Amino acid sequence: MKNEKIKSLLISFLWISLIIMTVAFIGGSFLFIFDAINGKVTLSILFKKIFVAIVLLGYAVLMYILLGIANSFKESAFVRANVKRFNYIGYIFFIEALVQAIYSSIVIPGLGLFEIFGINVTIEVVSLAIISLTFFFIADVFDKAIKIKEVNDLTI
């Protein structure tokens, strides 16, 4: 009973976050177009807006995927679709890490932890990369669990 309330609260939070990010993405796009028409866009603002748009879009897709995972728990969490979903989340965080690295290399070069081939590696980049790897490992664990479940189903 208590777990159902918490899960319901988390699903509501995911829906609200998805709606807010989608509205922010669309609203920011319209504001950017309005500023571009009025000639108020500089190269720095362009990079910042593209960065924010990619981040918002990535996290909106992430919320949508998490909703799919939450809905799959009604039957069984260990399904092939969740393996794909966890892999997608890993890819999203990896792309976010690359975008963060490129953005910080353009906007604040030389202020990261270190540089590799001119790419600024910040603490955010490292954190996002670790989160990405974590979701790839979770996908692998789910895949192995599904295989064990299939073998057990065949032996019964």
From TrEMBL:
* Keyword Transmembrane listed: yes
Its keywords, alphabetically, are: Membrane, Transmembrane, Transmembrane helix
> What's the protein here called?
DUF2975 domain-containing protein
Domain of life per record: Bacteria
Q: What residue ranges are annotated as transmembrane?
A: 12-34, 46-67, 88-111, 117-139
